[in-house]
Design a protein that fits this description.
This protein is of the alpha/beta class and 217 residues long. The chain has two domains: 137 residues, HAD superfamily/HAD-like (Rossmann fold, 3-Layer(aba) Sandwich), CATH 3.40.50; 71 residues, DNA polymerase, domain 1 (Orthogonal Bundle). The protein is 44% helix and 12% strand. The chain has nine helices and six strands; from the N terminus they run βααααααβαβαβαββ. The protein has a six-stranded parallel sheet with strand order 3-2-1-4-5-6, with helices on both faces. The model has no long low-confidence stretch (mean pLDDT 97).
């Protein structure tokens, strides 16, 4: 019996590429590449800093990753830096998200976010998307000063709710995040929006879904 549906935020509920997409004509010669490098570096920085126990919050790393992307991709316009950072605080949510959260709550389950994002980032994104009343909790790893996939980050949810890992369904678009949550004991659904190949064969999700609507089947 699933008692709580817990979601990663970035890439799962919110489109991480929507910040650049809104300002496509201002970013420079290769805006899609800037967005890709920005996201990849943002994640890389979390893993490196957790591994060496030298924490900076996700907002700082997001800004540093953008600085790298604008410097690394030829023809980029560094003057759009603040515009893109402002846009990241109000990323678009995927279109099915509000209805799915509402239906899960109608079933009597808790709904929550578990994210690397700082509290400031999560609050801004949730409010902008109109999801405040559809979520019971927003768990930020900032409380622990380390990032996923450290097991203690997933333990934030079980500690708060006092339920078993197996009673929690965890959804993420990031396959590495699904692997970490599966290792912790969550029932996991990989939201594979871009049809990526599978990996981490020993830590398989229960389902692979193209979007969150599959949770209602």
């Amino acid at each position: 019996m699933i008692k709580a549906y817990v979601f990663d935020a970035y890439g799962t509920l919110f489109d991480v590429h929507s910040a650049v997409a809104r300002h496509f004509d201002k970013v420079g010669e290769s805006p899609a590449r800037v967005s890709e490098v920005w996201r990849n570096k943002q994640l890389e920085y979390t893993w490196v800093r957790t591994g060496m126990k030298h924490y900076k919050d996700f907002w700082q790393l997001t800004a540093e990753a953008l600085d790298f992307a604008l410097a690394a991709v030829p023809g980029s316009n560094s003057e759009c830096r603040q515009t893109l950072l402002d846009a990241y605080l109000s990323l678009d949510c995927y279109k099915e998200v509000p209805a799915v959260l509402n239906k899960l709550r109608d079933k009597g389950a808790k709904t929550a976010i578990l994210s690397n994002g700082s509290p400031k980032m999560l609050s801004a994104a949730v409010e902008n998307a109109g999801l405040t009343n559809l979520l019971d909790d927003q768990f930020s790893v900032d409380e622990l000063k380390l990032f996923k996939t450290d097991p203690s980050t997933y333990g934030m949810v079980t500690n708060k709710y006092g339920i078993l890992p197996s009673e929690i369904a965890f959804q993420s678009s990031n396959r590495w995040d699904i692997a970490g949550a599966k290792a912790f004991g969550f029932e996991c659904n990989w939201i594979n929006r871009t049809n990526q190949p599978d990996e981490y064969d020993d830590l398989a999700p229960k389902k692979v879904l193209s979007d969150l609507n599959g949770l209602l089947d």
